[in-house]
Structures are given as structure tokens and as C-alpha cells.
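User: Could you go from structure to sequence for me? I need the amino acid at each position, not a summary. C-alpha cells:
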């Protein structure tokens, strides 16, 4: 023990001398001997701490604490260690432990010092809540209060005399501590609320910030300590009055916020009720003690439930004014008292405020304060009452509705019901609704009044309101009963009671009791005469009495007149009296004075827009004078008078619910808007009119007209149909119906509507003109659809109607001549006429109405107009159209648009004439005149892009720069015109700029993807760039579009024909059908196009339509013959020769051998010895054709020389083909001699031309047929030595492979045939024919599975597709496995569907079915 004590003493001394190493050694020696020595561990911990060994020091202290937890020494050392090491969390925990250890009166100083350190630490390092928890330890309710209470009172004069001054001050006066705690908690809660609201606002579907604040606040305010600390401050003896009021206000607002955050649900009902009581107690206390807390007073004022009989507490208002003289609410209340002239207000002593109150109008004060007191229920109530008193019903409604919303919000947030306040606001609202634009709001007002009367059955204001509503509905007896009730409640009242007596008299008068009503009105008038300042009531009563006398009629009308004058003397601006005087002057005065009556009506309407009868009289007068501006003014003001100002021009849903009181005003407004071409407002006006007058035929008629002009044709048809139902005999309705059908493109229905009108009104110029235009549009439509005969008939009708219109009304000649000229021009677009007599007759009629002398612009161009006996031709009709257009130009017009249109039409007609004149010396002059006309059109109307486009078209071929300039000007006017972009693209293409052409045409396609000409242009660009495949696809798309581009049809057909009829090709029928249909359409549109006719004949020949081909080629030959007679052009002669050659071949195919021989001989006679390649080819074709015709006719002697002549040509290729043909003919003769000669001829040909594969194949075929193996081997050896590419090029039909297979099969060598077929597939894997050949051999060998796999491994088209399908059917049938029978039947049926005329397909189906049975 002595050793331990010595070492402990040595360690303590070393620590005192700051010899920490020695202290450490001594302590460690003690612990080596006695590990559980408390002091040794403490000394070791201190020494290690000073030496910087923090971990060892902490372990030593912890060991000491474990040995004696109640001893302070180790805890003190540990706290210093943590403080030095900045281990703040452990430091705070250690200080708390020390406070607990010192929590006894003996250690009060240590306890206070530790608490001071702990508070300072939390103030510097801790959060607000941690600091609050530390400060709470100073309060009487803390665990340290019993110990700290032993601290002496602080000495403010010597605060440094003790180390615990701060604790002493806090313990003996806790108010500063409480204030600090409150401030910390307020900041903490506000910070949490702000942060959480911001966090939740970023979530999807988040509520409003206000709602989020309530939700977050509810979770905080419900468990907050702030109310407790507020109460402690209020109950503290040292709290000053100022602090107590501030704390009271804070507590009240805190409770109000918490109350507002609690939802009105059963879950929070108990808590809500508790908080309501607390808030009411706080507010009642503040008001009772007259504490100047304005928010509390306002809550009290707002939450006071006033009674219907005592709407305001004036005493309470006066107290508020005294306590808060500078508040805006005080200013409001002063204005209220001033406005109503109430006394008992104590004026402010402030001279500035007194000056404001004296000079500022009370009404303006109250109105201006609404911007400040936006959420004040009391302000809304006062302003609503004032607006009602001032009869500003619209604003009264707005303010009372706003007040009701505030009441609902107050009740929801504060859990206090205000039924009295709600009733008072509803009284203002219902009364205003009754009198604002009656009866617009009466339904709504009646619901509110019923609610008020349910609670207060005797309330006079609501009874009067119900009476007024019944009056407006003309339910006079019921209204009289309501006013009688008011009389019983207020029998001697000079206000509402007297007004009720007057209204009762007015109601019974209207109910038929004229005398009783008149008597009672006189009684009311007598009473009013005894009361001052009731001029308005007197004027109204006098007027009503005058109306009673007016109703009696006779001499009483003079008495009524005097009463009306008396009413105006009482009230000069009483509008109804002026209206009645107007009727007096217009209907009773002798003589009638319409001028004075009109002035009276105008005066009445100026004074009151609700004088609807006067307004209607004014509108009728203005409409008769066509004063549309005045009609609009009166109609709109009338609509405003009935409360429809918010409806005019509105697109809101309220329009569909609005029911007008004065339908005539809306109708008049609709007519005005229709006259001004404002079709949208016109439609809306007529719709509203019909809502009130559903069977008004004229409104339906006008509505249909407005719909029609607005382009809403379906709606127009329905509206006009309804108008026709109401009045079937209205010809204007029928006319408008027809016009709608015309605009919709239903021309037949339009004509059916117009023609019956002419039966009863044959001279009606408008109907004649519109019917003519309808026929013209129908003709244009039919021409585009390909109905040429129908189009011709419609154009004839249009001309006839136009000429008739000119006869009936010459004043419209310029307009009608436009229709006539357009119809004639349309006729000129026909290729031929089907009704020659009718066309000739109408052309003659047109010419008879044109003065030849007036055709000045055609002088020297068209020498003279055609005579009456001239043959009708399309070019002649075009010249007549040009003359008609020129005649229209000569008529002139005052409008530049009409003049420009006339010049434009004439220019287009002349340009069309130039386009149709192939060779004419006047072409250049006519073109110059056409350009001049188009330039004149542009001078008249330079902003019309159509004119610029036409000018560009005129310059297209001759002046590229000018054409480009014209197109660019057109694009500047309208950059989205597809025609302009297309023409510009074609111009660029024509002059070689394919890149710019492509851009322009692409822009046209973008604007209108259905523009066929733009697609044709793109196809031409693709062809120019060498992209033939793309060009073909583009042409194919172009011809499928609805646009009329004949050139595209022709080019599309040519490309298909060229692609399908190459050397050695066998075109499939399905591939040529599109070209057949498209070219057929083209030939019908342009029957004089020789190229198209020739191509169409060739396509028909390939399709096997020999008769159609013969007919078509004959037409082409006739046209070519006529053209050659006119021009004697060598090119035309060559075309004629080729066409005749083709006709001869077609006759040969049709077995017309005599005709074929005749045509071939004609060809040979036309050919000249010019040595041209084309001439040589045609001569060989003619010789071969003639020879074949003679041979088939049986004339061998004449046939052979022709074959021999064809085979002696200079061209080796032609000679080879001719030799093969001769050899085949000689073989066909059948004699041994000729067959040997055929062989010799072919051998000679092969000797001369070793690469002539067709000759070698023909020789091999002969060898196979004669079983001459040496000949076959020789021929095949010649074929096999040829290079592969040459064989494929010389044998496009792959006949070599066929011959080789047949040869091997004839020799019985199936393996050899199989090898040939396999080699063909290996050489050309994509060749469908080779695959089908191999599949066929596989089936013959019995390998059905391989054959089926091979047939299914490719997707052929055309003939090979049918063959492949047929082979698959046979393979399936022969496999006879599960499911193959059904597949075989399906494939066989499909092969028939692909080619119904193929016999093999039907045979395959029969075979498959036989196998299934």
C-alpha cells in the first residue's frame, strides 16, 4: 500500500510540476501493481492528455469512470479532453453528466458553472432546439431547479465577484430566458415550415403553397411548446404591459394559424372545438379590456353574427374608431357613418385627418378602401349596401358575391358559422339580381329569395323581390298577392308600404281589373303628392296612370297624354313617358306626327336603353333607310340594356346558355354583321335570336346565308332546310339552298333547287346568273372526271342561260359575259363534240351578240370571226371564246378587279390558241398580244399572283429570265402557291438547272402532297439525273393522284412499255395493265395525240386485244395522213410508215392475211432507198411480214422470195434474224428437201456468224426433232464454247437451258437434265424460272420435299409466281403428310386466282381434289 501511495503522490507532484512523462510513469507503475486504482487512472489520463495521446487518455478516464461513476474527477478530466479534441457531441454529454453529479446543494456552484458552460457550448455549437433544451434547465420546472435555487441573488453592481453570475441572474429572473426560448422556437418552427413547403412544392400533384403551409404547420403547431412559454411570459410577475400585449397577440395569431390549419373532418373535430374556444377566450378578453390589438378586434368584428333586423353594431364601431384612429377600417367606418348621416361619432383631433374627412366624399372613401381591405367581410358588406342604395346593381352583385366567398372561407378556417351575415349579403345579392337586366337573373334571384323567406317569412325586401320577379314573368295575380302581403306588414309605411300599394295597383290593372287598378293608383298618387322629394315615384305613378287611361282608349287618350306630360314635368328624364308620347304622336294624334314620334323614341332610348319598344321602332326606321351603322348602335345598346353586352363577340360557354329578351335586336345585329361580311358574329347573333324565336323563318334563312358565306356548308344546308320547312314557297330560301349545294360541289342538287325558281320567276337575273355558273362549274368538274359528253351538255346550258340573262338584264353584261366566255373556253377544251348541232347553235348565238368592230385586240390576229355556217371545231370554238373575252374587255368596268380579270382571261385564251397552233405564221403575233393582255391585267391588279404565274407561263419557252422574274413576283405575293412553285421548278428543269428544279418541286410537294404535276416534275428531274427507277416510282405515284396531268400518264405508260418489252422479254399481262388503263384515259382526253394512240395500240397488242389495237392504230394513221397532207413533213411520213407496218403486223395476227399483205406492200412502196438504218429495219419487217402472210395464205411461191430478200441485207443482225425466220418457214413446209435446206441455211448462217445463238438453238432444235445426235452435239458444242455472259446476253429467255434439258431427257439421261437445271440455278440463283425448272425435275424424280423447299425459297412475280404456286400445290399433294392436303388445295386455288385463264392451274386443282377424295 505504501508503494501505491508513494507513486500516487509522485504522480500528483509531477503533474503539478507539469512533468507529464514522470507522472505517466508513476501512474503506470501503480496500475501495474493495482489496475483498479481510481486516482492512478485519472492521473494517467491527465498525463496522456497533456502529452497528446488522446486515445490513451480517453481509455484511462473511461476506466476510472467504470471504477467510480459517481466521482467527478474523471468526468472533469474527460470533459477537458473532449473540449481540447473538439469532440463536441461527447463534450456536451459529459457536461450533462457533470451537472447531474453536481445536482445537490453542496455542489451548487459547480452545478451552476457547469450549466453555464453547457449553455455557452450549445449557444456556440448547438442547434436552436439544443439551446432551448439547455436554457430550459434554468427554469423552475427543470431537474436542476432545486439545486440552483440555493444560489444567492446576483449583485448587478459587481458581476465579477462570483463565477456564477449568469446562472444567478437567470434563476432569480427567468423572463429573459423565456423570451430567448420563445424567439428560438419561433425561428426554428418558421424555418422548418419554409423548408418543408419548398420541398413538397417540387412533388408531382403538389397542392397550393397555402395548403402546403397548413399541412406542414398542422404537424408542428399541434405539438409545439410555444403556447406554454407564451403563457409563462403572460403569467410572469416581471412582464411589462407592452410585452404582455405583444405576447397576447402572438398567442392569438398562433392559435388562429393552428385553427386555420385544422380540416373540418371528424378526425380533428375535438381538437378544432378546443382551439376555437381558446381563440374566442383570447379575443373576448382583448375586446373586453379594450386592448389595442387590431387583428383581434377585426376577428371579433368579422366573426360577429349580425341579425337581419340589426345589421351593424354601431357602438362597437365607435369603440373601434376610438381605439384605432389611424386604421383603414376606421376610415371605412367613418365613411359609413358619414354616408348614412349617422351621428354620435367622436371626431379625431388630428387636423390632417379631419381635413380629409371633410373634403373627401364618403362614397369614394369606401370604394377606394376596397383595394386595401380586400379580405374584409365588413368592408364587403358596407360597400354592397351602398351600391344597392345607389342602384349600382352590377357592382353590388360582384361585391356581395365576394363577401359570400369571404364568409365561406372564414367559416371554414375558424369553425364559426355566420348565418346572419350570409343572409344579409344574400339580401343584397338577390335584390340586385332582381333589378339588374330583368328577367335575366330572376331564376338565380328566386332561389336566393326562397332561402331568405324560409328563414324570415315576413321580410319585406324579399317579398317585394318575389313580386317584381312575378311581374317580369307577367304572372300578375301572383305578384299582386305578394305586394298585398307587404301592405299588410307595412300598412302605413310611406316607403316600401306605399311602393307595394302602387305595385299592387299596377298588377291588378294588368290582370284585367283596369278600374280597380286605376283607382288604387290614384290613391297612391294622392299619398305621394303629400310627400316631399318623391319626384321619381310621382313620375312613375303618373305614367302608370296614363297607361291605364291609354288602355281605356277613346277620349281617355287625351287624359293619358296629359299624364305623360305631367310625369315628364316631375322627372324630365323619365324614359317610359317619352316612349308613350311617341306612340301618342304616331298612332293617336291627328294628323299623325312621325317626326315628333321618332324624336320621342330617340329621347326615350337615349335616356334608358331598356326602352325596348322605342328601340325597335328606331331600328325599323333606320333599316328602311339602310342606315346600318345606326341600326348596329341601337341594337347593341338594346342588347346592353337587357344584359347581353358580355355575350356580343364572346366565345364563352355563356353564349350557348343565353336566352335573349329582345330577339329582334340580335336579329338586327346579325343582319348588320352579315351586311359587313363579319360572318362569325352574324352566325352567333342569329343563333341567339333563334333561341328565343325557334320558328322565325327569316332568322333561319339569314343563319343559313351566314353559314354559307362563312364556308360552313353542312350547317348552312341544315339551317336553310329548316327555313324551307317553315315556308316552302320562299324562293329566296330555295335560291340559297341551291347556292349552298353549288359551293359543296353538289351541282345536280343545286340545279334542282334553281330551276323551279325560274318556272315562277323566269326573269330573275340573280337566279339565271347563278344557275349559269353552276352549269359552268359542273361542266368543269365533269371534264376533269372524264365525262366529256356530259361536260359538253353542261357548258351548252351555261352559255344558253348567260345569253338569256343578258337579254333580261343588260345592266349585268360584264359579269354575265365572263360566264359565257368561260363556258365557250371550256367547250374548246373538248377533243371532239358529241352534240355538234347544239354547239354550233350556241356558238352562233354568242357571235350574234358580239360586235365584230369591238374586237380591236384581235385585229390582225384572228382575221375575221367564224361565220354561222362554219364547221364546228375546237380551235374555232377557242377563237370564239377569245372574241367573247375581248368583247368583255371592250365593255369595261369601274372596278379594277373586273378589268384585270377581263384582260387575264383574254390573255389565257390567246396563249391557249398559240399552244394549239403547231404551224401558223400568226403564232408570234398572237403570243405578243397574249403577253400584252397579261401585262395589262397585272397593271390593273399587281397583287394577284395568278396573273404573274400566267405571264411566267407565257414567257416559259421564249424568255427564261422574264418567266423567272414573273414566278418570283408571284411567290412574293403568295409563297405557298403550289402552282407557282411547280411551274418555277419545271422552268428550271427545262433550262437544265436540275438542282434548283428539284428544290422548287420539293417545296411544291411539301405545300400540297396531292399536286400531281409536282410529282411529274420530280420524276422528270430523276430521269434527267439518270435515276430511272426513282423516276418510274414517281410517275406511278403521280398518275394515282386526283389531279389531271395527261403528260404524266403518257410518260408513265411509255416507261412501263419500255421496261416490259425489251429484247427477248415476254411481258406479263399484269405488268402492262396499269399502262393500259392510264393510256386509255389519256387517249380519251387527247384523241388527236398520235404518239399516245400508237403506244396504246402496241400495249393492246401485247395484251392480246388485237381488235382494239387495230382500231387505235387506224385512228393514228388517219391523223398522220391528214397531218402529212398539210405539212408534207418527212418525220410525219416516217411515223406514218411505222404505224402502217404495225397495222400490217396486227392484221397478220388477226389472220387478216389479205389486209396484212396490202399494208406491207403499202409500206414497201413508201420506203425510199436512202440507206438509213430505220428504213432498212422497216423494209426487212415488211418483207418478213409479207412473206409470212403469203405463207400462211398458202402462196409459197410469193413467200419465199420475200424471205430470201429479207435475208440478203447488209446488216448481219437483221440478216441473221431473217435467215432464222426463212429456215423456220422452210422447216414448217414439212418436206425432206425443205428441211434439209433449212438445216443447210442455218449451218451457213452459223458459219458466217458463229455467235448467232438463236440460229444455233434453232439448229439444235431441228436435230432433236429428227433425232440427229451428231447435229445436236455440234450445235450444243457451239453453244457451250461461248462465254457465259455472251450466252446470257444472247439468250434472255434462257432457251439454251431448256434445249439442253430436253435433249438429255430425249436421250433418257435424267441425271444429265438434272445437272443442267442445277447448273442454271448455281449460275443465276435469283432466276425464278431456273428454280422452278429444277423444282419440276425434282417432282419428276420423286423428291417432293426438296422440290417444295426449293419452290418456297424464292418470291417470284408474274408468270413464274403462278408456276411456283402450282408446283407447291403438286408437291404438297404428293407428300401426303399431315396438313399437306389442305396446303395443296390452298396453293392450287391461289394459282387459279393469280391466273384464271391458265389451263394448267385448273388441271392442278383437279389433280389435288382427286387426291383428296
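Assistant: Here is the amino acid at each position, in order:
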Amino acid at each position: 500500500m505504501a508503494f501505491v501511495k508513494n507513486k500516487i503522490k509522485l504522480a500528483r507532484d509531477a503533474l503539478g510540476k507539469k512533468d507529464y512523462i514522470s507522472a505517466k510513469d508513476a501512474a503506470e507503475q501503480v496500475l501495474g501493481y493495482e489496475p483498479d486504482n481510481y486516482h492512478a487512472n485519472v492521473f494517467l489520463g491527465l498525463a496522456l492528455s497533456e502529452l497528446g495521446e488522446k486515445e490513451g487518455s480517453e481509455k484511462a478516464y473511461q476506466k476510472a469512470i467504470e471504477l467510480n461513476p459517481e466521482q467527478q474527477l474523471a468526468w472533469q478530466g474527460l470533459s477537458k479532453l473532449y473540449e481540447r479534441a473538439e469532440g463536441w457531441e461527447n463534450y456536451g454529454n459529459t457536461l450533462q453528466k457533470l451537472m447531474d453529479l453536481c445536482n445537490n446543494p453542496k455542489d451548487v456552484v459547480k452545478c451552476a458553472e457547469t450549466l453555464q458552460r453547457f449553455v455557452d457550448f450549445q449557444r456556440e455549437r448547438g442547434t436552436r432546439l439544443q439551446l432551448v433544451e439547455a436554457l430550459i434547465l434554468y427554469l423552475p420546472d427543470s431537474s436542476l431547479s432545486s439545486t440552483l435555487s440555493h444560489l444567492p441573488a446576483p449583485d448587478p453592481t459587481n458581476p465579477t465577484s462570483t463565477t456564477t453570475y449568469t446562472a444567478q441572474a437567470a434563476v432569480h429572473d427567468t423572463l429573459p430566458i423565456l423570451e430567448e426560448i420563445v424567439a428560438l422556437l419561433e425561428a426554428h418552427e418558421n424555418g422548418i415550415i419554409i423548408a418543408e413547403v419548398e420541398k413538397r412544392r417540387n412533388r408531382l400533384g403538389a397542392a397550393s403553397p397555402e395548403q402546403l403551409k397548413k399541412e406542414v404547420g398542422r404537424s408542428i403547431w399541434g405539438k409545439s411548446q410555444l403556447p406554454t412559454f407564451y403563457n409563462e411570459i403572460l403569467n410572469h410577475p416581471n412582464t411589462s404591459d407592452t410585452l404582455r400585449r405583444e405576447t397576447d397577440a402572438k398567442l392569438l395569431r398562433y392559435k388562429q394559424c393552428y385553427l386555420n390549419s385544422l380540416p373540418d373532418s371528424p378526425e380533428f373535430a375535438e381538437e378544432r372545438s378546443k382551439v376555437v374556444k381558446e381563440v374566442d377566450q383570447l379575443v373576448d378578453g382583448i375586446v373586453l379590456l379594450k386592448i389595442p390589438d387590431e387583428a383581434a378586434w377585426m376577428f371579433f368584428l368579422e366573426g360577429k353574427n349580425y341579425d337581419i333586423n340589426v345589421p351593424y353594431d354601431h357602438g362597437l364601431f365607435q369603440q373601434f374608431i376610438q381605439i384605432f384612429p389611424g386604421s383603414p377600417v376606421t376610415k371605412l367606418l367613418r365613411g359609413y357613418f358619414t354616408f348614412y348621416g349617422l351621428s354620435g361619432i367622436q371626431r379625431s383631433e388630428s387636423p390632417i385627418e379631419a381635413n380629409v374627412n371633410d373634403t373627401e366624399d364618403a362614397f369614394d372613401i369606401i370604394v377606394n378602401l376596397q383595394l386595401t381591405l380586400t379580405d374584409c367581410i365588413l368592408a364587403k358588406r358596407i360597400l354592397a349596401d351602398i351600391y344597392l342604395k345607389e342602384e349600382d346593381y352590377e357592382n353590388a352583385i360582384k361585391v356581395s358575391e365576394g363577401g359570400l366567398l369571404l364568409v365561406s372561407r372564414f367559416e371554414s378556417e375558424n369553425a364559426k358559422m355566420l348565418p346572419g351575415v350570409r343572409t344579409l349579403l344574400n339580401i343584397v345579392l338577390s335584390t340586385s339580381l332582381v333589378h339588374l337586366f330583368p328577367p335575366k337573373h330572376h331564376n338565380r334571384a328566386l332561389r336566393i329569395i326562397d332561402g331568405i323567406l324560409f328563414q324570415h317569412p315576413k321580410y319585406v325586401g324579399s317579398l317585394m323581390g318575389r313580386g317584381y320577379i312575378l311581374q317580369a314573368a307577367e304572372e300578375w295575380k301572383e305578384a299582386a298577392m305578394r305586394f298585398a302581403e307587404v301592405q299588410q306588414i307595412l300598412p302605413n309605411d310611406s316607403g316600401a308600404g306605399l311602393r307595394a300599394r302602387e305595385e299592387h295597383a299596377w298588377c291588378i290593372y294588368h290582370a284585367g281589373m283596369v278600374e280597380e287598378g286605376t283607382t288604387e293608383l290614384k290613391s297612391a298618387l294622392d299619398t305621394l303628392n303629400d310627400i316631399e322629394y318623391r319626384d321619381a315615384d310621382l313620375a312613375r305613378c303618373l305614367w302608370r296612370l296614363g297607361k291605364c287611361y291609354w288602355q281605356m282608349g277613346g277620349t281617355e287618350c287625351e287624359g293619358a297624354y296629359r299624364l305623360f306630360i305631367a310625369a315628364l314635368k316631375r322627372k324630365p328624364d323619365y324614359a317610359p313617358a317619352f316612349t308613350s308620347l311617341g306612340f301618342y304622336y304616331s298612332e293617336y294624334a291627328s294628323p299623325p306626327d312621325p317626326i315628333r314620334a321618332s324624336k320621342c323614341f330617340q329621347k326615350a332610348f337615349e335616356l334608358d336603353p331598356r326602352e325596348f319598344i322605342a328601340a325597335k321602332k328606331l331600328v325599323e326606321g333606320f333599316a328602311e333607310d339602310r342606315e346600318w351603322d345606326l341600326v348596329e348602335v341601337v341594337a347593341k345598346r338594346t342588347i346592353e340594356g337587357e344584359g347581353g353586352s358580355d355575350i356580343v363577340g364572346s366565345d364563352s360557354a355563356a353564349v350557348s346558355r343565353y336566352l335573349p329578351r329582345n330577339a329582334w335586336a340580335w336579329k338586327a345585329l346579325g343582319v348588320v354583321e352579315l351586311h359587313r361580311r363579319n360572318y362569325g358574329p352574324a352566325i352567333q347573333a342569329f343563333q341567339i335570336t333563334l333561341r328565343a324565336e325557334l320558328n322565325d323563318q327569316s332568322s333561319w334563312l339569314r343563319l343559313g346565308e351566314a353559314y354559307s358565306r362563312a364556308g360552313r356548308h353542312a350547317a348552312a344546308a341544315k339551317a336553310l332546310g329548316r327555313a324551307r320547312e317553315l315556308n316552302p314557297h320562299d324562293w329566296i330560301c330555295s335560291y340559297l339552298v341551291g347556292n349552298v349545294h353549288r359551293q359543296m360541289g353538289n351541282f345536280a342538287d343545286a340545279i334542282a333547287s334553281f330551276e323551279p325558281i325560274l318556272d315562277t320567276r323566269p326573269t330573275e337575273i340573280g337566279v339565271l346568273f347563278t344557275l349559269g355558273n353552276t352549269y359552268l362549274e359542273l361542266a368543269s368538274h365533269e371534264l376533269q372526271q372524264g365525262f366529256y359528253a356530259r361536260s359538253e351538255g353542261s357548258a351548252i346550258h351555261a352559255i344558253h342561260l348567260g345569253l338569256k340573262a343578258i337579254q333580261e338584264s343588260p345592266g349585268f353584261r360584264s359579269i354575265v359575259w365572263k360566264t359565257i366566255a368561260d363556258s365557250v373556253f371550256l367547250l374548246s377544251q373538248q377533243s371532239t363534240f358529241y352534240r355538234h348541232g347544239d354547239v354550233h347553235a350556241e356558238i352562233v348565238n354568242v357571235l350574234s351578240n358580239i360586235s365584230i368592230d369591238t374586237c380591236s385586240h384581235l385585229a390582225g390576229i384572228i382575221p375575221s370571226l367564224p361565220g354561222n355556217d362554219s364547221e364546228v371545231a375546237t380551235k374555232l370554238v377557242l377563237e370564239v371564246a377569245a372574241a367573247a373575252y375581248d368583247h368583255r374587255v371592250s365593255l369595261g368596268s369601274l372596278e379594277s378587279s373586273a378589268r384585270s380579270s377581263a384582260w387575264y382571261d383574254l390573255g389565257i385564251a390567246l396563249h391557249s390558241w398559240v399552244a394549239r397552233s403547231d404551224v401558223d405564221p400568226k403564232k408570234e403575233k398572237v403570243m405578243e398580244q397574249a403577253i400584252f393582255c397579261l401585262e395589262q391585267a397585272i397593271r390593273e391588279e399587281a397583287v394577284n399572283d395568278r396573273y404573274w404565274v400566267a405571264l411566267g407561263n407565257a414567257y416559259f419557252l421564249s424568255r427564261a429570265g422574264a418567266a423567272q422574274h414573273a414566278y418570283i413576283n408571284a411567290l412574293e405575293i403568295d409563297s405557298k402557291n403550289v402552282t407557282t412553285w411547280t411551274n418555277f421548278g419545271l422552268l428550271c428543269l427545262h433550262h437544265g438547272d436540275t438542282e434548283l428544279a428539284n428544290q422548287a418541286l420539293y417545296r411544291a410537294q411539301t405545300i400540297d402532297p396531292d399536286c400531281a404535276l409536282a410529282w411529274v416534275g420530280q420524276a422528270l428531274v430523276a430521269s434527267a439525273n439518270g435515276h430511272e427507277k426513282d423516276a418510274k416510282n414517281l410517275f406511278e405515284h403521280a398518275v394515282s393522284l386526283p389531279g389531271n396531268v395527261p403528260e404524266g400518264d403518257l410518260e408513265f405508260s411509255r416507261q412501263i412499255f419500255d421496261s416490259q418489252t425489251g429484247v427477248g422479254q415476254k411481258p406479263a399481262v399484269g405488268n402492262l395493265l396499269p399502262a393500259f388503263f392510264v393510256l386509255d384515259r389519256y387517249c380519251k382526253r387527247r384523241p388527236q395525240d398520235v404518239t399516245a394512240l400508237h403506244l396504246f395500240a402496241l400495249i393492246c397488242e401485247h395484251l392480246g386485244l388485237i381488235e382494239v389495237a387495230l382500231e387505235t392504230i387506224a385512228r393514228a394513221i388517219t391523223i398522220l395522213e391528214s397531218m402529212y397532207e398539210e405539212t408534207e413533213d418527212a418525220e410525219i411520213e416516217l411515223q406514218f410508215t411505222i404505224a402502217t407496218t404495225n397495222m400490217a403486223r396486227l392484221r397478220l395476227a388477226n389472220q387478216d392475211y389479205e389486209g396484212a399483205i396490202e399494208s406491207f406492200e403499202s409500206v414497201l412502196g413508201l420506203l425510199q432507198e436512202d440507206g438509213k438504218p430505220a428504213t432498212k429495219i422497216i423494209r426487212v419487217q415488211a418483207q418478213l411480214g409479207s412473206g409470212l402472210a403469203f405463207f400462211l395464205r398458202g402462196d409459197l411461191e410469193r413467200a419465199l422470195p420475200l424471205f430470201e430478200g429479207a435475208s440478203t441485207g447488209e446488216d448481219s443482225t437483221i440478216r441473221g434474224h431473217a435467215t432464222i425466220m426463212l429456215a423456220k418457214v422452210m422447216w414448217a413446209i414439212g418436206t425432206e428437201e425443205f428441211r434439209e435446206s433449212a438445216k443447210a441455211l442455218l449451218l451457213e448462217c452459223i458459219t458466217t456468224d458463229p455467235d448467232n445463238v438463236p440460229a444455233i438453238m434453232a439448229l439444235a432444235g431441228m436435230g432433236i426433232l429428227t433425232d440427229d445426235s451428231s447435229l445436236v452435239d455440234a450445235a450444243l458444242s457451239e453453244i457451250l464454247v461461248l462465254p457465259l455472259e455472251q450466252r446470257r446476253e444472247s439468250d434472255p429467255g434462257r432457251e439454251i437451258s431448256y434445249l439442253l434439258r430436253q435433249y438429255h431427257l430425249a436421250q433418257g439421261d435424267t441425271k444429265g437434265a438434272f445437272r443442267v437445271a442445277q447448273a442454271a440455278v448455281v449460275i443465276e440463283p435469283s432466276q425464278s424460272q431456273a428454280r422452278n425448272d429444277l423444282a419440276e425435275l425434282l417432282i419428276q424424280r420423286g423428291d417432293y420435299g426438296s422440290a417444295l423447299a426449293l419452290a418456297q425459297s424464292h418470291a417470284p412475280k408474274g408468270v413464274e409466281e403462278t408456276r411456283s404456286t402450282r408446283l407447291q400445290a403438286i408437291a404438297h399433294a404428293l407428300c401426303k403428310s399431315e396438313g399437306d392436303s389442305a396446303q395443296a388445295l390452298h396453293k392450287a386455288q391461289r394459282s387459279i386466282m393469280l391466273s384464271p385463264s391458265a389451263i394448267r392451274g385448273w388441271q392442278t386443282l383437279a389433280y389435288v381434289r382427286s387426291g383428296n377424295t
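One structural detail worth keeping in mind: DSSP finds 74 helices and no strands in the chain.
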